Here is the input.
Amino acid sequence: MRKLMIALCACVALGTSAQAQTVKDFLALVTKKWTTPFEPFHLIGNIYDVGTDGIAVYVIKTTQGLILMDTALPQSTGMIKDNIAKLGFKVTDIKYILNTHAHFDHTDDFAEMKRDSGAQLIAGERDKPLIEGGYYPGDEKNADLAFPPVKVDRTVIEGDKVTLGDTTLIAHATPGHSPGCTSWEMTVKDGNAERTVLFFCSGSVALNRLVGHPTHPGIVEDYRSTFAKAKAMKMDVLLGPHPEVYGMQAKRAQMKDAAPKPFVDPGELGTYIATLEKDFDVQLAKQTAALQKQN
Ligand SMILES: [Zn+2]
Here is the structure.
């Protein structure tokens, strides 16, 4: 998978029809995993996993209703709703829908979920035009990466808080992967302990162009600032927009074996960011070399 992403990004830097074909190839490869069902479960504190095998979707239960974090592909909307119901929750109890970043694999069901729940949609300020336009940044006309446009009810910037009942989430602007990429911090009660949790937005290069005609202006500086910010954070639990970010399946299996607290790992965020940063440098060098070859 990692190899594929690296290969993909090198091609994307070349642009035009090669890019369109690469996007199609990429989607053909990932869609199966992204739409494979996964049994919902209680993750930690008041956080529940209701996503698929390849895309993370969370429900946060508060004293005043539910918060939904992200959605998945349209093929999975029914499955996400079923997962919510299996845990004894109701879609109509969702009061807020929070977004990590405005990419189709996390925003595709927003319009339907918003309609069904009447919830308010909250997203990073710089991602608002993308969500309301239903397109991928820097690739506005690419139908393969489009999603149903939906109104953003509230935008957040660094340090903004979203509170529902007994639960408050703090927004951290972590741009790069998307311009308004937002990581969400909260504290959960875990038995007698309190744990800080970060829903990290993402820091992978994925389909982004870093050089030439970048996906968005200032993208390289954005990634760098995000890596620096995340490295300074102290979090007990790392969560992310795709389960592989934090090895969800393996930890879930450990939970079944009654292992103590597999999701609590204060060193994991730092290690993960270091990996991302290394990969970013490789991708940047490859894209730069590809561009020089082209010119
Ligand atoms: Zn993404």
